[in-house]
Inverse folding.
């Protein structure tokens, strides 16, 4: 299967990648990184150090009680804290993207919170070149305690500063390298215990650091547990709703063009839920030629294909062979042009990363007839399991099984494929250099 336009980055890898052993995990941030790397400056070592609530110029005490808390040396709260606070940016069902055009070697970009967990709309980045966390935007910090959460309704799903109310992002978050945009398919008009979702997409541009949003879809229900993939050939963010809350959609959003009402982009035709009763917390990804969307259906423990030549048709279950793991909810599915295969990863699988190699065919019938082959990309012995280590290290309540897009694969010049994993706000970022898939 030829490599086409699935990704188009031609950037140098970080200097520390070249001499990395293949197929095993390393810490590259925190107080004690591996590979002989020095710790980065305080304030940049962990995601939690970039929490806007820690900045008193952004978050002055909002009550007498809060003044007393800080005088006693306790952790600062904020009007946008929510029930959980900043740690929800990783733990509350949230994703991330790898943006190869942000920073010399690309960056992991994270945003989210949602429901009653965290109301902050701040955006954060982990720069692969510097190995430093930074706060890209402060988010909406100008409101009082009644500007966030239950009862604070925003019909366009945006705060007064233009940033979106943060949902549980699930796998609704992707990256458009041509526009250098982070794309979020769903919106929220209200947070809190009775959260209200709405089909309004949002775009965060990494050149000007500004948000904009698309038009509302009147029929699509994009509630909890959905999943997406970016189609660079058609310039469409394909999305599938979860089942929760009446999720009813498989559809696409094109971000290009400004509309008369100030929104951006347009929706494709909406098709019905293709995995009725089985749609929660799957993942999907484009094949390299842009003809097929591969879907991991964890309820069926099976792979399915959606034919984009006929998107109205039902997905087809694929033949599989090789070293297949038990498929899990909350997993990640990527495509590597370097390895010329799909890459599957689940936190429930510990340190293991898997390749899914498509048949060497281009026609739809041939892709269905031949076997899609599973193999382990890191078949060596693991001295480090990032899932177990990070869960044991974190001081917060963690959702250990959640991966979503906080696992990404960066393809670099020199035929280097790097797996990147963000776990919790107070744990290192982990990486593994991936070896070529073998069937």
């Amino acid at each position: 299967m030829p490599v086409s336009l699935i990704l188009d980055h031609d950037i140098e890898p970080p200097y520390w990648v070249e001499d990395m052993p293949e197929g095993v995990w390393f810490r590259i941030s925190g107080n004690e990184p591996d590979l002989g790397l020095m710790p980065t400056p305080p304030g940049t070592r962990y995601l939690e150090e970039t929490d806007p609530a820690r900045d008193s110029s952004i978050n002055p005490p909002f009550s007498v009680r809060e003044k007393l808390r800080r005088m006693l040396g306790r952790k600062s709260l904020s009007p946008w804290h929510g029930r959980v606070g900043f740690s929800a940016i990783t733990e509350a069902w949230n994703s991330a993207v790898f943006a190869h055009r942000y920073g010399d070697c690309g960056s992991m970009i994270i945003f989210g919170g949602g429901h009653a967990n965290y109301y902050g709309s701040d955006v954060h980045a982990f720069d692969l070149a510097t190995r430093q966390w930074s706060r890209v935007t402060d988010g909406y910090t100008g409101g009082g305690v009644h500007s966030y959460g239950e009862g604070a309704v925003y019909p366009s799903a945006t705060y007064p500063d233009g940033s979106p109310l943060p949902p549980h992002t699930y796998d609704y978050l992707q990256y458009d390298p041509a526009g250098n945009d982070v794309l979020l398919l769903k919106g929220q008009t209200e947070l809190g215990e009775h959260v209200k979702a709405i089909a309004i997409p949002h775009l965060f541009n990494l050149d000007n650091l500004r948000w904009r949003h698309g038009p509302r879809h009147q029929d699509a229900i994009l509630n909890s547990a959905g999943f997406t993939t970016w189609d660079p050939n058609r310039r469409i963010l394909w999305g599938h709703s979860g089942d929760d809350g009446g999720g009813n959609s498989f559809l696409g959003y094109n971000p290009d063009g400004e509309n008369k009402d100030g929104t951006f982009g347009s929706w494709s035709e909406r098709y019905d839920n293709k995995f009725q009763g089985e749609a929660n917390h799957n993942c999907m990804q484009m094949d390299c030629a842009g003809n097929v969307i591969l879907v991991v259906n964890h309820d069926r423990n099976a792979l399915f294909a959606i034919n984009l030549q006929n998107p109205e048709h039902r997905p087809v279950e694929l033949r599989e062979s090789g070293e297949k793991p038990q498929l899990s909810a909350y997993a990640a599915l990527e495509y590597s042009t370097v390895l010329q295969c799909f890459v599957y990863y689940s936190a429930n699988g510990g340190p293991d990363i898997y390749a899914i190699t498509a048949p060497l065919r281009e026609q739809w019938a041939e892709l269905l007839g031949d076997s899609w082959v599973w193999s382990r990309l890191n078949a060596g012995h693991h001295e480090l399991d990032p899932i177990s280590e990070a869960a044991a290290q974190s001081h917060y309540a963690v959702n250990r099984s959640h991966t979503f897009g906080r696992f990404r694969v960066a393809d670099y010049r020199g035929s280097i494929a790097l797996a990147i994993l963000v776990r919790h706000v107070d744990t290192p970022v982990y990486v593994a250099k991936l070896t070529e898939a073998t069937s």
Summary: The radius of gyration is 21 Å. Residues 15-433 form a domain with the Neuraminidase fold (CATH 2.120.10.80). The longest strand covers residues 250-258. Helices lie at 64-71, 88-91, 364-369, 386-393.
